[in-house]
Specification:
By secondary structure, this protein is an all-beta fold.
């Protein structure tokens, strides 16, 4: 899953996961596990909501956050 931050017009950003990035013919985006940046629930969604849809016309832009499989693990051991 790909983690996105959706920056909507006149609203706080929303974080969630998507299966694939939207393509140019898409009109809505389905976000799994929608939440605020601080991890709290969104006040306008029911507490048991697992997937929500937003029209792409309401977004100003979105950010793609690096996933755990994409981040290289670099460690140094000094003896």
């Amino acid at each position: 899953m790909i983690t996105l931050v959706l920056h909507m017009l006149n609203e706080d950003p929303v974080v969630g996961e998507v299966e694939d990035l939207p393509i140019k013919t898409d009109t809505i985006i389905f976000l799994h596990n929608p939440r605020r940046r601080d991890g709290k629930e969104l006040p306008y969604l029911e507490h048991n909501t697992t997937t929500a849809a937003w029209p792409l016309a309401r977004l100003s832009f979105f950010e793609v956050l690096p996933g755990a499989e994409e981040e290289p693990i670099i460690s140094f051991v000094r003896e």
